[in-house]
Specification:
four-stranded antiparallel sheet, two-stranded parallel ribbon, 60% helix
Length: 507
């Protein structure tokens, strides 16, 4: 009994020691340009600031050099492996108050709040970010110890041996810490994707809002002008009764009234369609007949393409996500380079030896020899992934330039049109109509010329409102960093815990 008690004491003592694993020294992989180890940035503002801003030549220095990405301090994780890193912020949908429309109408801000709370694409992106956070926790967990029972020489009477053993695999090379570092960059990528989706929704809401607001103003303008045209029909009829007008005057007035009625009907259809689009983006059944509150003419100033490009490069969450993918690929390359460091498996067993009447203790160490498999294939694949990620950043930069050129063309044309109508065409059309009306009242011009001037004034105002709508939409696209597609399929996270399995296998 005394021998068995001693053996049992040895086993109980070994259990907590083996379950802790071993602390291996953290390896720092020197980069080709001896760049010091950098702590991965997780704060959103820091990630935006880390993006290349204006000079495309800065990107050229990124591709040929593999810079070292050091992992963060993981002492807390090693003490409690299932606790998420507090430095990683998981993207979650904002908690917004329910927005109720007032009797006067809905503002752009109110619709944006509804969209941020109800848009399913944002919720989908947030769920993908949370999934990446869960994977990040999993890939850094240490392997569980194994406890077992072993019996030998059972059919050799009086010589049987019985042992209880504990086995633990010690992951060397800090592979688990590197695993979490790699997936931490995935978390950062998905957080940026959430912000990208929010910006897409925000831009779509603004573009649709200004489209609806322009349709609403065109409808109001047509309804106001209809009263003038209706009065013109009455005047024509009175002139015919007074023997100073003709039947064609009445017909021309009625034709103009029919054209205005058609414009009203078209504006109503356009407004209804724009409101339905707004409702779909905001995630609500419909907006009903609520009017919109806002201004199309906000006094926009001329924009410079290069300045706008620099702003987009500095602020775009889409570019931040692409840069985070470069950081992820770089960290994964360094992770694969430490994979060849073999793990150590230790086994400790204790029990009675009935053949000698004494106790016995077994201790065993084993590790694979990296002779054939030095992880060279995964290292090559990780290097290719890094090269692809860097080229993706360059592709996005060129794509932004192309999209900005298109939107800047729309903006400049709309701005020039608005200024021309506001400063020259509308004042002249208004003055012409007044002079024609006065001359017609004095009997100097026939009624047809008055109708022509009236139609020109109405058309000029419609074109002015349409140009203001296009200018507001182009301005919204630029302010929205050219990100549109609020209901498009979002980037999902399809990563798994493969890195953990690779780390535990030791191969």
């Amino acid at each position: 009994m005394r021998i068995r008690s001693q053996n049992l004491l040895l086993v109980l003592t070994a259990l907590p020691i083996l379950s802790l694993g071993c602390s291996t020294s953290r390896q720092q992989l020197a980069s080709r340009d001896s760049t010091p180890i950098m702590t991965a940035q997780t704060d959103e503002s820091q990630a935006f600031e880390a993006l290349p801003a204006t000079d495309e030549a800065e990107f050229d220095a990124l591709s040929p050099v593999i810079k070292t990405v050091g992992y963060q301090n993981r002492e807390a994780d090693e003490a409690n492996g299932d606790s998420p890193d507090p430095s990683i912020r998981f993207a979650v949908p904002p908690e917004l108050d329910v927005v109720e429309s007032s009797e006067s109408g809905l503002t752009l801000e109110a619709i944006e709040q509804m969209a941020m709370a109800n848009n399913p694409a944002i919720q989908q992106a947030s769920a993908a970010s949370a999934r990446a956070g869960g994977i990040r926790t999993q890939v850094g967990l240490k392997p569980n110890p194994t406890i077992g029972y072993n019996a030998t020489q059972l059919f050799d009477a009086g010589t049987d041996q019985h042992t209880i053993f504990v086995e633990q695999t010690f992951v060397r090379g800090d592979k688990l810490a590197w695993n979490r570092q790699v997936i931490s960059h995935d978390v950062n990528v998905m957080n940026r994707e959430v912000e990208t989706q929010r910006q897409r929704v925000r831009t779509d809401i603004r573009v649709a809002f200004f489209d609806a607001l322009a349709a609403q103003q065109r409808l109001e303008l047509a309804r106001e002008f209809r009263g003038v045209v209706k009065e013109g029909v009455s005047v024509s009829e009175e002139r015919v009764k007074a023997k100073v007008g003709t039947r064609p005057d009445i017909l021309q007035s009625e034709i103009q009234l029919n054209e205005v009625d058609l414009s009203i009907q078209q504006a109503e259809f356009e407004l209804l369609a724009a409101l339905n689009e707004l409702a779909a983006l905001a995630g609500i059944p419909d907006l009903g007949t609520t009017s919109l509150i806002g201004q199309l003419d906000a006094g926009y100033q001329s924009r410079d393409a290069e300045s706008e490009f620099s702003q987009i490069m500095a602020r775009s969450p889409q570019l931040a996500a692409a840069q985070a993918r470069v950081d992820r690929a770089r960290a994964n390359l360094q992770r694969q380079q430490v994979q060849a460091t073999p793990n150590v498996t230790a086994q400790l067993g204790a029990g009675p030896d009935n053949g000698t009447g004494q106790g016995l203790v077994n201790f065993q160490l084993s590790l694979p020899l990296p002779v054939h498999n030095k992880n060279q294939g995964n290292i090559a694949a990780a290097h290719a992934e890094y090269c692809a990620a860097t080229q993706n950043v360059q592709r996005l930069r060129q794509s932004v330039r192309r999209e900005l050129a298109v939107v800047m063309k729309e903006y400049n044309i709309a701005e020039a049109t608005v200024q021309q109508y506001k400063q020259l065409i509308l004042p002249k059309a208004d003055e012409t109509l007044k002079l024609m009306q006065e001359a017609q009242d004095a009997g100097e011009f026939d009624f047809l010329r008055v109708l022509t001037a009236r139609r020109a004034y109405f058309d000029a105002n419609l074109k002015y409102v349409a140009a203001m709508g296009r200018l507001a939409q182009a301005n919204a696209k630029i302010d929205g960093l050219l990100l549109t597609g609020g209901l498009s399929d979002v980037v999902s996270y399809d990563g798994g815990d493969d890195l953990r399995g690779q780390a535990l296998s030791g191969e």
